[in-house]
Amino acid sequence: MVTPSHEAIRIARCGAIPATQHIIQNADKLTKLASYGKYGGYFLGGLGVAASCVEIANTSDQQKKNEIFVETVASTTVGLVGGWAVGLFLVSNPVGWGMALVLATGTVATSYILGQRAQYVYTEYGNKIDLVSGAGVSSICQ
Amino acid sequence: MSIEFFRYPAYLFAILLIVSIACLVFIVIIHFFVPKIMIKTYFKEPYFSALEIKLFTGPPYAYMRTAMMMRLAGWPDCGKKRGIPATAHEVCPVWFQVLSRVFIRIFLTIVALFLFVGVVLSIAFTAFGVW
């Protein structure tokens, strides 16, 4: 009969896989995923604002410039506010991938829709106010 | 009833948008005043996953961690599912607990109102064929 101490000697420790190997590998994967998520956030946020700026620069009609500006500001604001509301929800409800995807998609869709509504509100009721010139956007986005 | 009837709801929508921007400014400011001890004690495993910790640390999503910590400070029971003890709020000062409770209530009211007015305007504009 082999005693535990003998068994311990028989195990080739240098050739064994550490017990924490899978945890470390998964943690690495998650860290990479989180990094991709962060870069995605930077990319999408930056791309949206930059695209709007280019659009404002390429439009000669002042009314159109204001509409693009209002839509960009409103959708960005709603997106950020929605993200904060999701944060409030997440602390009490840890979610899986599916729910996280639903929340992210819902926030993006809401920000897009409300951005468009804000643009229509501006067009219908506030088009006498020149926000682009007032906020100095026209000098930045040339 | 004409589209003119919705002029004031439209103004309310614009005001709520401006107030939402003000809320975001406040969130950015309060982000730097979230007690470090609270983050160190509770924003870690096993309460949060490794992915959540990595994702919500640093820009661009760190402000969502602020929301989590503020809710935890204001409503200590809310972290039950994550295994966060109901005494979590005790590590942060009273002013932060009170501010969290007040701000989150105001924030949710504004968001709910903003969405409601947005939906009302959407229906009205669709009915009048504005888009």
How much beta of chain A, percentage-wise?
under 5%
Number of strands of chain B: 0
Unreliable residue runs of chain B: none
What general form of chain A does the structure show? elongated
User: Helix tally of chain B?
Assistant: 5
The computed structural class of chain A is: mainly alpha
Q: How would you characterize the largest beta sheet of chain A?
A: none
Number of strands of chain A: 0
- Strand content of chain B is under 5%
Kindly report the oligomeric state of this protein.
heterodimer
What is the H/E string of chain A? Answer: HHHHHH
Our measurement of the CA-to-CA distance between the termini of chain A, rounded to an integer number of angstroms, reads 85 Å
Question: How would the global form of chain B be characterised?
Answer: elongated
In short:
The complex is a heterodimer of chains A (142) and B (131). Chain A is mainly α and 142 residues long. Chain A has helices at 4-10, 21-58, 62-92, 97-125, 131-134, 137-140.
Topology summary:
The complex is a heterodimer of chains A (142) and B (131).
Chain A (H helix, E strand, L loop, with lengths): L3 H7 L10 H38 L3 H31 L4 H29 L5 H4 L2 H4 L2
Chain B lengths: L6 H25 L4 H7 L7 H6 L6 H13 L19 H34 L4
Helix pairs in contact in B: 1-4, 1-5, 4-5
Task: Characterise this structure.
The complex is a heterodimer of chains A (142) and B (131). By secondary structure, chain A is mainly α. In chain A, 80% of the residues lie in helices and 0% in strands. Chain A has 6 helices and no strands. The model of chain A has no long low-confidence stretch (mean pLDDT 80). With 131 residues, chain B is mainly alpha-helical. Chain B has helices spanning 7-31, 36-42, 50-55, 62-74, 94-127. The chains are: A mainly alpha (142), B mainly alpha (131). At the A-B interface, helix 2, helix 3 and helix 4 of A face helix 1, helix 3, helix 4 and helix 5 of B.
